[in-house]
Write a structure and sequence with these properties.
The protein is an alpha+beta fold. It contains 14 helices and 16 strands. The protein is globular and about 65 Å long.
Amino acid sequence: MNGRDDAREYVLRAAKENDVKFIRLWFTDILGSLKGFAITVAELEGALEHGMAFDGSSIAGFARVDENDMVAMPDPNTFSILPWRPRQNAVARMFCDILLPNGQPFEGDPRYVLKQNLQRAADLGYTFQVAPEMEHFYFKDSESTEPLDHGGYFDLTPLDTATDLRRETVLTLEEMGIPVEYSHHEVATSQHEIDLRNTDALTMADAVMTYRLVVKEVAMKHGAYATFMPKPRADENGNGMHTNQSLFKGDTNVFYDPSDEHKLSNTAYQYVAGLLRHAGEITCVCCQWVNSYKRLVPGFEAPVHISWAVVNRSDLIRVPAFREGKESSARIEYRGADPTCNPYLAFSVMMSAGLEGIEQGYAPVPPASVDVAAMNDDERVAAGIQKLPRSLYEAIELAEGSALLRKALGDYTFEKFIQNKKIEWERYSAAVTDYEIKRYLPIL
């Protein structure tokens, strides 16, 4: 019996022992929206063996055309009971790989895209480890931005709804087998952060999708609303997804070099150089909504320029403090992404940019010696420091001409993603905003 057969047997046994009646088969569309459908336990054995047919056009995001038969093949290693559903006639979930009717992988499946990129890393002898730090707000409802608390960074606020929500979210995640490393109040009012313990990128992408749903489910259970919207309040910090990342060969962290001033290897420096060189091209994937670019503005601890540093938190990339005796903790933190990205695609493009630096032998870029945010434009130009895209439109233009992005996503996903983002920008461009009404209606 092989590993997949063992996993199938475990799922069938666990479903019986836990009185599971329904199994939700999950996948994502190109934009990272969680999709799925439910089957009963009577269909479980057949689904594990042959998959379940469904209309795969839902994977295309906004850019749907005609119905397209696909097969959702459950990954038995992702079986988990949903703790917020009843224990009698319980509900479980599994993530699925999307196949064509002939059994071949569908190239537009974001999970497949990530698997292809991880195989590229494996061919070079690497495994890709990530640990995202995802921020979110709790509001009283989805119609306003009225907060649940007035705490600040790392504040230990008196027991209130927001604190309890975060606690219950952590407990729910751990009950589902998703380990949490830290949780705390963030800088903005009613903003919170829960950091997942680092693991391989595929497991983490599945965990991110689960995490986003759990945060919202727990909030809804208590009559509140949780949002990962990048910038819901103009006068407060936005929501980021700072992504700690490193490459391993077996149990060895190849980013670590004890002789280096910052404990980083030449491989790590080349990886950083790749991320910096291709940052503009991948921003469209890491920050994929119009609102994402309201976060990437000066004054709110979000990166605006393409630079890196060891300690400064305004740079695109920083090197977190190294813990002596724990070589595995050597890593870099990419701070450009927000938590509304598609994690399968975002992890793919980050790693692809970094690997490009390694494979092509990019020259290491020295860290910024001064605070880039405090420099004027002339000083930044003289230092060769460029800006991140300032709008989704700029990001689309950079992405559309990127050979690296096309290689990382594959032709189908690349073209569909760009098509989706153009639709997003066209809809926004045609919208009349509250700002325009307040600014122009009284005077024009």
